[in-house]
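Title: Prediction job returns without error message
Component: structure pipeline
Severity: low
Priority: P3
Assignee: unassigned

Description:
Job completed but the reporter wants confirmation the result is attached to the right record. Sequence as submitted:
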Amino acid sequence: MPDNNSSAITQKVWSMCGVLYDDGVSYGDYLEQLTYLIFLKMANEYSKPPYKRSLGIPEKFNWEKLYPLSGAELENHYKKTLEALAKLGGILGEIFTGAQNKLSEAAKLKRIVNMIGEVNWVSMSADVKGDIYEGLLEKNAEDTKSGAGQYFTPRPLIRAMVACLKPEPEKTIVDPACGTGGFFLAAYDFLTNPEHYKLDRKQREFLKYKTFYGWEIVPNTFRLCLMNLFLHNIGDLDGKVPVIRNDALLSAPKETFDYVLTNPPFGKKSSMTFTNDEGEQEKEDLVYNRQDFWATTSNKQLNFVQHIHSILKSDGKAAVVVPDNVLFEGGAGEIVRKKLLETTDLHTILRLPTGVFYKQGVKANVIFFDNKSANPNPWTKEVWVYDFRTNIHFTLKQNPLCFEDLQEFIKCYNPDNRYKRKETWSEKKPEGRFRCFAYKEILERDKTSLDIFWLKDKSLTDLDSLPDPDVLATEIMENLETALENFKVLMNNLDTGMED
């Protein structure tokens, strides 16, 4: 008899995760097998009353053929099933493309199969399914060896960005680097919250099938994203796939969207790997020759900023996580900033603290801008900066970022009417974190830099204000990681110069 007690199911999934991890199975490998098997089980549930929906899975590869098997027989049949399902169309085919069994022992596979077989997944609420999966994704992001953290944006930050943008029903939302789908889920939660909107049937239909669009280049992350969306009731098993597995930067957009919410991948250079005549692997800077871009550069983040502008409707809005170099870098960076200030209303910058991202060494910001129609005069009149970095310290485990920590920023942002804002900084209140800078002031800054700060770092003048040793150690590590990353870029540039 299927077990539908949500807390019991959650506990089972988490317990199995811990047991397998102790046996050497990574969170990522567990998550991957969980994805394949839950999809297979749900497809089987949908094929029966009251749904009676055929999803095109060959009978010899359905759940009922797999479930009773064990040992080598289970392993062999599972391998053939993954290969067969990769040839299907729709979300199912996308999920199983390149699928492999990463579990080295048949007994471990059997334990997961049994656990999934005991649950009726279709009848379980989307909240419970989604929470289980999101929890596992976060666990996977914490596993530094997997490198999965770079595809996982802290959920409190995502929620704050969505709260500021305030998306409306029956409008489209896109993420050109969607990772595991965090921005989509936060926007979905915002739109379905009865405190914000009471959706009618037409609006709910639009939300499920037509609101979300995304790109993800990494196959396994793409797979996790599709599963995450489906478990949260976004899209359908046999319907149109809401996310495209491709490089979003490759070509100019065929359509534009109402909102962009995204955290493009960190790492300054875009590059591609190829095999040379000697059979050795080489990396080459990847430059996108897009006619619709303001500047040609191999800087990945600057390309994403340009691309985001190109996929916005003329009245579209964007909230984008960018590293510090986007705000101060010269050359192409200055060109992009000037164009962004001219063609959009770049109204808000949130300076983020360190210790909030799973990838160490990241110093980042969120830029908020509204797209505008062509105009001879610059659209940006003033830029509001909220310094959430100076004298603020977070760590991933001991003192993680919470949604409540961002409430003051959201209040200052004033999503209901951002034209009625008040500075918390003044000459009499030099500790205020929210400050307004006129467009003219920005233009007068070296390289039109938007890397603006004014608060004094207390730890430099007051030893009693130093953060805790673990926070200090984390910040030192992050600074070293950043320096190392910059040295790598410098070395690559020197190597390229010597070859030229």
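Comment from assignee: result matches the submitted record. Residues 41 and 63 are 6 Å apart (CA to CA).
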